[in-house]
Amino acid sequence: MTAKRHGADDVVAKDVVSGNVISGNVIGPVVQAHTIHGGVHLHSAEPPVMPVVTPVAAQGSAHADLFVGRAAQVEEVLARLEPDGEGRAVVVSAGMGGVGKTALALRTAALAVRREWFTGAALFVDLRGYDPDGRTVASHDVFAPLLRALDVETQDVPENRAEQAAVYHRTLDRLGREGRRVLLVLDNASSGDQVRDLLPRHAAHRALATTRDRLSLSDGNTLVLEALPAAEARTLLERALRNHLPDDPRVAGSPRIADRLVTMCGALPLAVRIVAAILADEPDLPLTALVDELRMGGRAAARRVVGGRSGRRLMATPTRPRSLGGAARPIMHTEPRPGAGDRGRAGAGRPL
């Protein structure tokens, strides 16, 4: 920058160069500024959540032996998935988390694979629609992982999302024409937008979605899933506990107290498994003591599952709670209240 003196009070700068000098290793954004007063806060958008697509095994999940009851619902869903069934999308809907939507989806998908109904592929993806941090999976981010799972070579997967969608549907159409049926399990969808573009267009294929809401899908059938009957909930409590401690006698030895525990769980499968995890981590804890503790201060008891060994295993399963809040609410012996994601409670959907 150059300037000339015009008066006594003028400031002259001649051939003075100003600039910013950065040295050393720089990681992250760099701000170029003149004078800064106060603190500087940089906010950058979080990267999108990249979905993980996994195949559905014929034997189901590692916790398939903990699936209790639901015989009528399993048969209803299977009737929609079978080769001669009608409809392309099945939506399993319920009013709150923890009622067993994912477990039912995995159970029926595993049975369908075992019957060799889907020789093209049977794929599971968690859309994270009710993630407490709001980091949901957008449908356009699922095309590429699905294509790779459908054995499309990496170099044949376009970078453009619109082109990915086109290749995805062409691939499904080709598999349908070849008689290689595909099943998609789209878990935890909070809106129709998350699943609509992923639904196969070829009539040979099927999609099974789970949600807490009623999804707006023109070709969807809704099954409203309720809590377990009390006897089945107690059976689940005993199986879940003996999954960790095979010889544990507490549930079988005190069936009435066990019934009280599952009642405090609202007979929700996930809440029952949380209670079983607490009991597994404390083998000397009587059922009556846990009932009293839950009645007096359920929050403390619910939090203990996070730090326990059995609780950590529970949180690592596909049916884990996104947070303990919704799943622990029944075992705190409080009345469940519908949240923003509970608009599709019982009665919102039509039967299969």
From TrEMBL:
Residues 310-352 are annotated as: Disordered. Residues 332-345 have a biased composition (Basic and acidic residues). One of its GO terms (molecular function) is ADP binding. It holds the Pfam family AAA_16. It comes from the Bacteria. Gene3D superfamilies: P-loop containing nucleotide triphosphate hydrolases. Residues 67-191 form the Orc1-like AAA ATPase domain. PANTHER family: HTH-TYPE TRANSCRIPTIONAL REGULATOR RV0890C-RELATED, REGULATOR-RELATED. This is Orc1-like AAA ATPase domain-containing protein. It comes from Streptomyces diacarni.
